Amino acid sequence: MDTIQNQYEAVYHSDETTRLRQDLALALRAAAFHDLSEGVCNHFSAEVPACADWFLLNPRGFQWSEIQAEDIVMVDADGNKLWGKHEIEPTALFIHAAVHRIARKKCVLHTHMPYATALTLTENGGLDPLLSQNAMRFYNRIAVDRTYNGLALDHAEGERIAHAMNGADVAFLTNHGPIVCGESVAYAYDDLYYLERAARVEVLAHSSGLPLKPVEEQKAALAASQIQQERLQSTLFFESLRRLL
Q1: CA distances to 176, 187, 196, 205 from 200, in Å
Q2: How far is C-alpha 202 from the chain's CA centre?
Q3: Which of 105, 148, 165, 175 has the CB geometry, 3.0–4.6 Å to 181, for a possible disulfide?
Q4: If you ran DSSP here, which 8-state letter would residue 126 be given?
Q5: What is the dihedral of CA 146, 176, 224, 57, to 10 degrees?
Q6: Mean pLDDT for each consecutive 10-residue tract of the chain (245 residues)?
Q7: Is domain 2-244 given the CATH code 3.40.630.30 in the classification?
Q8: What value does the CA radius of gyration of the chain take, rounded to a whole number of Å?
Q9: CA 158 to chain centre
């Protein structure tokens, strides 16, 4: 047992995992700064580089604005805590463990941020990627899960959500909130930020009562491709947040 615990501790404090803990903590603080957090609820997670079946997760009961790298907890794909000084929240285990294991996403960000969540309450169920330029970056990257079963308090519900994503980077969980995934914390956070910005503009446009003017699908596809080919902007944005926060 001591040998296994030593292994967990070594991975948790390795240079690579420490950098990832720092990035995840930064993303959480940035989300609080951008008003994307909700009390002490919701979760961000990232796959541990040394083991694809382990991931890092924010602890239970903390405001996102106060989280530092040493507060991040390391868990396995079954939701068992491997290392960390804080407790973890049950719904985080079921949703995030399933999305990491089944959808094979390296970084998983789940929020109840207001404007994107507002779109989950509509008949359309999610963002229209043919409207604003910010929305176009998500063209062909969105899944809408139209089933609501209450809080995700078991493995079956987490697995259902993961399968409903069908490989998409962004999922709108009906009457619940969005999930945003990425290959790195920086990329995922950049998408999370712009998803909320795009959702906000869409909600405001609908509130005007005026007819909306979507672009043709090929133009949205072009804009999406252009943005995906220039992800340096995502890294620069994340590093600016590191300096700011």
Answers
A1: 17, 20, 6, 9
A2: 20
A3: 105
A4: S
A5: -120
A6: 86 97 98 97 94 93 97 90 92 87 92 98 97 98 97 91 95 98 97 98 97 98 94 96 96
A7: no
A8: 18
A9: 15
Buried b (16+ CB within 10 A) or exposed e, 194-206: bbbbbbbbbeebe
Helix, coil or strand: residue 89? coil
Q: Check: CB of residue 154 under 8 Å from CB of residue 78.
A: no
Taking the C-alpha atoms of residue 245 and residue 239, their distance in angstroms, rounded to an integer, is 10
CA–CA distance, 43 with 111 (Å, rounded to integer)? 7
Q: State the pTM of this model.
A: 0.96
Q: Which two tokens stand for residue 114?
A: 């207001």
Q: Taking the CB of residue 121, how many other CB atoms lie within 10 A of it?
A: 10
Interhelix angle 185-207/15-33, rounded to 10 degrees, is 20
Output the pLDDT for position 89.
86
What CA–CA distance (Å, rounded) separates 139 from 178? 16
Structure token digits, residue 243: 């300096």
